[in-house]
Amino acid sequence: MEQVLRQTWGFLFRDYHLTRRYFSWVVVFTFYAVVNSATVVLIGVAAGDRRLTLTLMVGVMLWGLLSVVFQEIANSITYERWEGTLEYTFMAPVSRLIHLAGVSLFSTAYAVVRAVIIVLGMLLFVDIDLSRANWPGLVVVLAVSSVAFIGLGLMAAVLPVFSPERGAEATNIFQGVLLLVSGVYYDVSVLPRWLQPLSVVSPATYALSACRKLVGIGAGSEMVAGAPLSACAYELTVLTLMGLVFVPLGLYVFALVERWAKQTGKLKRTG
Amino acid sequence: MSNLGIEVRSLSKSFSKRKGLMRTRRSVTRALADVSFEVAVGETYGLLGPNGSGKSTLIRVLSTLLTPDEGDVRMLGYHIPGEEDEVRRRVGRVSVDAAFYKKLSARENLLYSALLYGLDKAAAERRALEILEALGMEGEKFTDPLEELSRGMQQKVAITRALLVNPPLLLLDEPTTGLDPKSRRDVQTFLEKLRGEHGTTILLTSHDMAETERLCARIGFIAGGRLIAEGTADELKATAGAETLDDAFIALAGQKLDDEGEKRREAVLAEA
Ligand SMILES: Nc1ncnc2c1ncn2[C@@H]1O[C@H](COP(=O)(O)OP(=O)(O)O)[C@@H](O)[C@H]1O
Ligand SMILES: [Mg+2]
Predict the structure, then answer these.
(1) Helix spans in chain B (H)
(2) Measuring CA to CA, which of A45, B19, B142, B214 is 20 to 30 A from A101?
(3) What number of C-beta contacts closer than 8 Å exist between A and B?
(4) For position B224, which CATH number holds?
(5) Which pLDDT tens digit goes with each residue over A174-189?
(6) In total, how many domains does chain B have?
(7) Whose CA is nearest to atom 8 of ligand 1?
(8) pTM of the model
(9) Domain enclosing residue B265, as ranges
């Protein structure tokens, strides 16, 4: 047990210090994210539409969290390949489960801090009353949807083992598709009909739908108080199932590719 | 049971690559072909071979980073493939390239590795400083980003990483290649001490004759993925009827040891 804790701590320790050493970049990226979020939400303010403003705000907050969870996990192996440390991590007596749990833990914590900063930063630019939102409900939905995104991140994380560059490219394309089909800033019904089936398989679609209810965006234009969590039972069920499928699937895919890489010599930095 | 540290039987490993415009041609490199040898517990065994002869591939198989195609490997009695977890706990490895997080300090890189092996952080830090000192590295560099350290110092940190867990088996892949003469001597002296004091089983690859002769009780010549001769330095010279180990290698392998031109020996076996 102590061994497991130390190993998990090892990944948190590493990622904490990497974040610290690259802190100026973290500040720059966060600054950009805050400003970008504010400009999106100000579209709603300019339109004088409180409902639109809130919808955009939910989108910004949710995407700010989930995309970072996904991205950080997906890029963790890419970083290791660039640095050349991947072989050393893989020859350490650490189970892949602990390795990936450590990476996921840090990524999620990092994403949460980023999302909080984005929301706080946004409130500097936009005057909006969020006191009627169901905050505990939002936390539950975000936690459950993070698990599904961790699973997606794990599947993407292993791509750079095939090819560092192609892997990173595929990760970005995949993230872009998620952004498009999940209806982050709009209802998915506005998407072309041929794209709509894709929105059904994205966990972000359900997370967004639930968060909109919880923040108090009703069906019509009138503003209502945040809905109780029970109003999101369907979304929560789907998100939970997705998490239950995606995380084991992500671990399985990772293990398969790792085995293949050891047979074909793809763990090496070059080649 | 036997007192063998490393036991390698009929080990083969090939890599295939797709080639050509349509990526339809497949070229196969036989990196290791039917390699067999043994290293006793506490012995230092040297593998001498030119670039591309399969040394690193062998080290990677022994450190569980590559699965063998054929053959059987035992590390302190534990099988590869099959008992990789047991092997991982007992093996330290140093490679030619210093594979570190370059923005992190030696301290951070080393503690990260120590934690993965389940060591106590404070104890690991003390031990790391001891080893670095024994290797002749000043303590004040301990907290500087690794990218600011010279290659020699980075390699000393790499050796420290491998030794931090006190592994009974040490795999050293050209640990002194590209080092300045002083660092090279520091490392060699340290390895001699280590073998004397801890009885560590060491497999060392090199293309430096003098180093191998100084450090290794027995030496294997490897060329084109094959182990072509084996013995003490004197035995190898006698077999080849040569004055020096260099000449012995040329006589037995039919090529020079530091021949860069021999780097790629790819046989196109299959075309589809
Ligand atoms: N991961 C890999 N993928 C493809 N080919 C490889 C890989 N590793 C080694 N090789 C090839 O196998 C041969 C032996 O390489 P290597 O073991 O690195 O030799 P050495 O360490 O003696 O220089 C070379 O031809 C090299 O190109
Ligand atoms: Mg090599």
Answers:
(1) 55-62, 84-90, 106-116, 121-134, 151-163, 181-198, 209-215, 233-240, 245-253
(2) B142
(3) 91
(4) 3.40.50.300
(5) 999 999 999 999 999 9
(6) 1
(7) B57
(8) 0.89
(9) 4-271
